[in-house]
Write a structure and sequence with these properties.
With 603 residues, this protein is α+β, with helices and mostly antiparallel strands. Helix content is 57%, strand content 11%. It is globular, with a radius of gyration of 24 Å.
Length: 603
Amino acid sequence: MSSVPYTVPVQDMRFTLEQVVKLEDLTALPGFEEAGADMVQAVLEEAAKLASSVLAPINFAGDRQHSKLVAPGVVQTPEGFKAAYDQYRDGGWNAVPFDPEYGGQGLPWAVAFAVQEMWQSANMAFGLCPMLNQGAVELLQAHGSEEQKKTWLEKLISGHWTGTMNLTEPQAGSDLSQVRAKAERAPDLGDEIYRIKGQKIFITYGEHDLAENIVHMVLARLPEAPEGTKGISLFIVPKFLVNEDGSLGARNDVQVVALEGKMGINASPTCTMAFGDESEGAVGYLVGAEHQGIKYMFTMMNNARLAVGLQGMAIAARAYDQAVVYAKDRIQSKSMTRPKDPPAPIIEHPDVRRMLLTMKAKTEAARALAYYAGKHLDLGSRHPDAAVRAKAQATVDLLTPVVKGWGTDVGCEVSSLGVQVHGGAGYVEETGAAQHFRDARIAPIYEGTNGIQANDLVFRKVIRDSGAAAKAFISDLLETAAGLEGSGNATLLGIGARLKEGATALETATTYIVGAGQSDPVGAAAGAYNYMTLFGLVAGGSMLGKAALAAASRPAGFDAQYLDGKIATARFYAEQILPQAQGLVAPITQGAASLNEFAEAMF
């Protein structure tokens, strides 16, 4: 049985928040005055205890046991999950970023992302439950009525109830215009109450034994609704109805009918849900206006996309943590620098060091980019200047598909390298390295495949505003490069030069994408995935550049070896990863012809 402990990278989380994201920018915002470095450090250290001592030890066993459908409509999570969730809930961890009016702790999203990274690293299958719940909270805060907020938010924020997202149907997949679930008005039950009938698939934690109630956010179509996504409405459909005094009432007609057998995240119940099979329909409560469900659901989807990008990075961090432990312990072959000595730990071998440094550099770049997006969520909602809020929100919109797409690709690459570092032992389930790879593989698929993220970046975030937000971000990249080049430090100067080359490559690709949006949208789509990869690669390099600049200033509270390591990591990324950016320009700008001229019969 895998017994490799999880060492939470608290120091790197602190450094990223304080020195790269600039925590002081957030403590200047209304409501965040108390979220200073000392408080954040205390929060991270307490969260680390739960992650490392409670969640991580049940990760491997949970993967083996799976969640199980033990009776009609009854799901049992693996041994230890209910007790772990109780500790998570009772510790107030579900409430970290939410409105104090409904029981939240009101901390910045940037800080919440660091805390949530720990849950996903320690036990990704467990972390999926609160991840979907937070999206439901965001949705209701943004679009729910005052009565709905009063009824649902406090229990969802506390974690006594959990939320889900019900979009996908067997025939629809990612094409939500094909949704067939039906909603009928139920005036006999009251205003804005409906009966829901239909089936949804791939519903994460659609049924489980962790919480008292499960609150489903369900897309369905009214009888007179127009075709396509414009005809879809959004409904709250709880497992148990709620009485006027807030207590739980009768069981609603919503049931799990099957659990998926999956490649990974086996402890997480992925459910096929049936609504209204035993009655006129499950009771549902309309959110907002009829036929506006997709617009509302995007609040939850965008929250989930950032969270999934964070999840990709988190599983990468866990795979790296385990690979380093193994590489320091595994003795095999003589060191090239000490050929007369006995066989050495494999961490001394150049190719193993290449793999470990790739894992470390990409993980830390993705961490900083996710936290940076979290900071702009905070600025976009709380800054007193409307112009600053608008720019921050534009940055969040731009980075959401990049954090999700590139971050989850990093998760797959790094967890695969983790298996490789272990060699043959990595391919054996007992070491636990394979589980990280299997778990990571879902992240580029759910909450919109990475191809969908790439198209979202290109068509909705770059072409739609003629590249304005992207060009503003590239300007910031070039400013970071100039700061590195002007530092007077030879190592930082080299990092800055590589970052400038990468930013220039991104600028060239962006100019092409904007032009192709008008003249050749098929060409823009053909280059979209490579463009997303290029964007993430360079944005990640910028984050490490900022980290190197900060480390060179020797901030207090971080040991010298750690700071030297931040500079060395940024240098490795600049010299061995950033040059790949230039190689992506040609596939983006010239690759459409070979892609589109390939006849279907040739496949």
